[in-house]
Amino acid sequence: MADTPTLKRALGRWDLTAIGVNQVIGGAIFLLPGDVARLIGPWGPVAFLAVGLLSLSIALCFAEVGSRFEKTGGPYLPARAAFGRFVGFEVGWMMWFTRVTSQASVANGLALALAFYWPALALGAPRMALIAGLTIALTVINLVGIKQSSWVVNALTIGKLAPLALFIIAGIWFIDPSHFSTMPAVTRQQVSSAAILLIFAYGGYEVTGVLAGEAANPRRDVPFAFVATLIVVTLVMSLTSLVATGVVPDLAASKTPLADGAAIFLGATGALVISAGAAISMTGNNMGQILNGSRTIFALAENGDLPRWFARVHPRYHTPSNAILFTAVVALTLALTGSFVALAAVSAIARLVMYLAVCASTLVLRKRVPSGDVGPAQFTVPGGPVVPVLAMVVALAILRGASNAQLTAGALALVAGGVLFLIAINTSHGNTETQKH
Predict the structure, then answer these.
(1) Could you give the CA distance from residue 344 to residue 252 in angstroms, rounded to a whole number?
(2) For 151, how many CA atoms within 13 A lie in the half-sphere containing its CB?
(3) Measured between alpha carbons, how far is 9 from 124 in angstroms, rounded to an integer?
């Protein structure tokens, strides 16, 4: 119908890039250099750069398939087009599942970070009030419009990059070359453990294409945003690791490596700026979780794979209001009850499912004649099948590093998704017959 409300196309290529950068650079970067140093010592900066380049191979596949679609959905759409409705649903379900559990986890992380300065926020009613207040505020911003949401994400992305830029620019003059004079031998297991940790650290860029249905020129701007996101985050994370490794005397023993490093060359004020940057970073990450999680479940409903209730577009704000509210309520429930801890293991397999599906669909869709929602690729990864195959190898490395608990949790989540799919298609009010299998 002509007067049925639709999503507003208001995002440009740099808005999409900011959303991608915001999701990759969360609170972890403020702690990660120390974690990596405990595994491979001063090889950390090299590992950050290498894994960033490997992640770029996967992002290039996302860029190619993203250039074929103009609708909201991200990885769900190419998986559905290449492998059918059920596989597409599982990819979309796992992506939404990851978003809500991550949102709950980051909200709790923010409460703990602020509790360092205000201890009352660590427990009880103050903690619950902080988490609830944050979730409600970010949900309202998401509801009132995509452009408003974009402004907030852009501001928070700048807010998290500014202290990191200060850390890099000021700290690079204080690097002690002796920290790199002895590069210890590392085992294959150490390298593998560090690589797995960093592959997860670089995750999050997959959300860049989820908002294609609200982008002004998605088939051109989504590929740009994928590549720009990986270039930005690789530079920021690699240089951050370089400075931390070169400045902090015993990086492997540091629990707050960036704050410790800033205290060395900027004093107590510098450490406070870094701590504030971590809080801003986690807030921005939470904003992005609601933004992208809601659009994923909206896309499932828009394509008939969930009840149409989730696909409702607000007549005034032109946002997926029901999907936003549902995502926020689930995430808030997980955050307040602590249930996200038990579900955290699913994220490993969820990311694997998304990466493998997209990399494989890159090859499958190259052989398809464009039709329906699948258009011709506006961007093609050079080198034929080389990059998609390499990307699948990188994705499989995640599986190799997954624990039994992660594999079990991931399998259970996939089964739960399958049950939900069967329920959804049997209660879709007759829309099933119109779907393409």
Answers:
(1) 25
(2) 5
(3) 42
Cα distance between residue 240 and residue 235, in whole Å: 8
Q: What percent of the chain has pLDDT over 70?
A: 94
CA distance linking residue 38 with residue 193, whole number of Å? 11
Answer whether 223's CB lies under 8 Å from 214's CB. Answer: no
The model's pTM is 0.87
φ, ψ of residue 256 to 5 degrees: the values are -130, 70
Distance in angstroms (rounded) separating the CA atoms of residues 365 and 345: 31
pLDDT tens digits, one per residue of 86-137: 999 999 998 898 888 888 888 888 887 788 778 888 788 888 999 999 999 9
Match 């796992």 to its residue by tokens: 94
- Output phi, psi for 374, to 5 deg: -95, 110
Residue 51, SS3 per DSSP: helix
Tally of CB atoms within 10 A around 3? 5
The tokens of 242 are what?
A: 């370089």
Dihedral of the alpha carbons of 171, 173, 178, 179, in degrees to the nearest 10: 20
300, 158 contact by CB (below 8 A): no
Task: Tell me the domains of the chain and their CATH numbers.
Answer: 13-432 (1.20.1740.10)
- Return the minimum-mean-pLDDT range out of 49-53, 145-149, 187-191, 360-364: 187-191
Nearest Cα to 381, choosing from 67, 53, 17, 77?
Answer: 67
Closest CA to 11 of 295, 364, 266, 233: 295
Give the ranges where 67-84 is alpha helix by DSSP (H). Answer: 76-83
Helix (H, G, I), strand (E, B) or coil at 374: strand
Give the burial class of 413: count Cβ atoms within 10 A of its Cβ; 0-12 exposed, 13-18 middle, 19 or more buried: buried
Q: And the tokens for 191?
A: 């390298």
Cβ-contact 135, 332 below 8 angstroms: yes
Q: Which two tokens stand for residue 291?
A: 């933004």
Q: Would you call 382 helix, strand, or coil by DSSP?
A: coil
Tell me how far apart the alpha carbons of residues 381 and 62 are, in angstroms, rounded to a whole number: 10
In three-state secondary structure terms, 323 is: helix
